[in-house]
Amino acid sequence: MLNFDQASLGKFLQEKLKDFHPEMVSYEYGTVQSCADGIVRISGLTRAEYGELLEFENNVYGIALDMSLDGVSAALFSRGDTVRPGAPVQGTGRVADIGVGKELLGRVIDPIGRPLDGLPLHTREFRPVETPAPAIMDRAPVDTPLETGVLAVDSMIPIGRGQRELIIGDRQTGKTSIALSAMANQKDTGVICVYCAIGQKAASVANLVHTLQESGTMEHTVVVASTAADSSAMQYLAPYAACAVAEYFMYNGQDALVVYDDLSKHAVAYRTMSLLLRRPSGREAYPGDVFYLHSRLLERAARLSPEKGGGSMTALPIIETMAGDISAYIPTNVISITDGQIYLESELFHAGVRPAVNVGLSVSRVGRAAQYGAMKAVSGSLRLQVAQYRDMAVFAQFGADVDAATKKLLDQGERMTELLKQSRERILKLSEQVALLEALRIDALQSIPTARVIRFSRQLLEWLWSNHSQIMTAIDQGKELPEDLSQPLEQAIVAFAKNWEA
User: Fold this and answer.
1) Among the listed residues 84, 91, 103, the one whose alpha carbon sits nearest the alpha carbon of residue 50
2) More confident residue, 73 or 502
3) Which of 79, 114, 278, 365 is catalytic?
């Protein structure tokens, strides 16, 4: 044990006390005037800021959302039955923030950073849930692909790192499945994934977390969840909190992918809150600033310039439509904010075409800039061919006589549609996608019966990995398809197709 000299210790304390000057700290308090439907009206708190956290009795918190001469209106994060009129309210002086960092990987948290998986959580850094989007001069062009592992998306509607690609469609058409496939495909790429569940059933969120854990995706994923049982304020805050978590990685030079599932429920939660706050309503009872609600969120997704660290944040917002109506208020708003959309059609889904991507209404405004050279070489006019086939198939179903050229196009289109079918569990590497599209390009599928195309494609990939793994590995590593790889790959596919037919 260390022995302290009592005389020197006493002298040290006396000097410290001599320099100590007590300061008076004043706390401003307000008073609850009324509380109903999760909205609290408060008198006082003249210094409160917009978005400031307010503390009520019994450790209940709310967020200040309305400032007026009469006082402040706040939305509660929890049930309002614990707040009574006349109770004191204290401003915390802190705008809503959330703990960020690598400690969150593999965890499930709520929009204010509390763990929902029953384990302790300690974060060292905090970020405000709402921050300004990166300036124009701080951004770099989007030119690096973010591969989803879904053949239909990577070949026809490519997504780049830093892009905002909307996934839109009716309920139960596979929107979340595409997002989960994209997250699972980032396993060894160093991309951090953030999944934001807004207004979903708690059971659905639990099932999703279980799926992520089983596939090994949870190791590089953070789940921010606000369930249907949570207050409107929590559902309103959830996507901004998820964005702040992803921003931490972006500003530290890493790549992040954030999925907002879904922004339709987010807009409804904000509408509920706004009506309770007695704000003027506009079209479909949404408040006038509902466009700004999503634009200030999605504009935070970017690819930073090398001077700013070169990190990126890719956003995959999801919007649910009613009866395929993409011209409704919220869908058109978000379409105008994003860099393209993947439109999933319920008719295609029920016909067994999964993923049910409608090529005509889907678009990537970044385009081929976000595709590797190997994919550019083989995807070519695939999008145009699929669109032409879908248009022609509508007329052919009436049994009209068609010429030989049209019949060939229809036959090829049927095989093309079968080739693009992909289950959620099946994630394709770049080399596998290139091999399948090369087989389509050289008409290796023309003599394969349509019903057996999926089986053929699976066995082709297995055979290529067994007998020509050096070609597949070279494509995955180099991301290009030069002549010295293209020729052997084509010859291998032709040889396999002949043997398979025999």
Assistant:
1) 91
2) 73
3) 365
